[in-house]
Amino acid sequence: MICYQFVDLGKSALERHPPLLDWIMSWGPEGQTEVLEPEGWFETGHGITGGELDNNNVWIPTHNPSNQCFIWAPPLQM
Q: Would you say residue 25 lies in a domain?
């Protein structure tokens, strides 16, 4: 008998194995660790909270305090 198994690459590791999140959350500071959704990967995950244009019309971002921890767990295939 042949049994085929596969890994669903359309799901993140946290979706495939939910207990993984509790284990990862135990590594970070209490209450300062946040799981990011795709919308937050490139701004929130880099500490960017907004910004403004300077005198030369160059966008200068403003940042969160540096004591935040983020979990970025994308699916392998989107």
A: yes
Closest CA to 34 of 48, 24, 20: 24
- CA pair distance 55, 51, nearest whole angstrom: 13
| Sequence-separated (6 or more) residues with CB below 8 Å from residue 38 | 74
Q: Which domain holds residue 32?
A: 17-41+67-78
Assigned domain for 75 exists = yes
pLDDT in tens, 33-77: 888 888 878 888 888 888 999 999 999 998 877 777 888 888 866
- Look up residue 78 and give its DSSP letter: -
- Asked whether residue 10 is assigned to any structural domain, the reply reads no
Alpha helix positions (H), the chain? 13-16, 19-25
- Predicted TM-score of the model (pTM): 0.59
